[in-house]
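Here is an idea for our session: we take a single protein and study its fold together. Which protein we use is up to you, so please pick one and set it down. Once you have written the record down, we can walk along the chain together:
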Amino acid sequence: MQLTYDSLPEDLIKFNFWNPEESIISVAPAGESNMNVVLRVNTNQRSVIIKQSKPYVRKFPQIPAPINRIDVEFNFYHLINSNKVLAGFSPKILKYCITEHTLIIQDLGDEGDFAGIYSQSRKLTSDQLMDLVVYMDTLHKLPISNYPENIEMRKLNHEHVFHFPFMEENGFDLDTIQPGLQELSLEWKQDSSLKQEIEKLGYRYLSSGDTLLHGDFYPGSWISSSGEIKVIDPEFSFKGDAEFDLGVFLAHGDFCGMTESFENAIELNYHRAFDAKLANQYRGVELLRRLIGIAQLPLSLTLEKKRELMEKARNFILS
């Protein structure tokens, strides 16, 4: 069954999932998902989230993507829901329809994600920030034996994190994002030393590691549920460098003007040893790819402020 944002109750009722006497009242998009079709389904008994992967990126249908990413997400939730701390941050699995590439999970509410912290229209409290670091610390300490390599999703991410943003001619006109950004980006796209280091980091990212990562640990993957912070969308998860999650996390602290708060939260609540230089290198790549790559954020920054962040990123990568 192929789901779309136009799917009707009579389509969804065909899933072998519903309780006796349960009827669907409404179907609506559950937030702005980049990768998948995600629906909030309200019935006369409850509300659930139905998520289906496609063989392409939902937001950019021209970009192919592995359809079995939903299997990785299922494995991630199944694994961490056996941990008392992590289970408190995650939705419960209600049903996994492997042949339909569909996951039905607990609805954690419609308070939305934390993308608003970039514009200060949403606040991230100190307790929520600490909770996020506790989540990372606990996740990265989990003993893991078997876990999907998720190599096809990593290859997709690798292209858009470590390669595409740094091509001089990639067909993506950054002036459509902000006039002057295309010209500004050339200084970084033409920096051969910088690009060599980014390429090395890309090889590391594609290598296997021993630490389970969320893989996309940024404000779009954090949602508020009755004031508590929850973590979703682990389809990019894999076993690799803990520093990758840490670097992504720190970069978004830089974007929302909370650098010191994010760094202090890690110092206080992240108790696993890590390579600070490597974390900052990944941080620098995340800063650059979000500024000059296709995965743009809802930022309201001047070109001069973007230049400052890009120079900061270069220093992180080359230091």
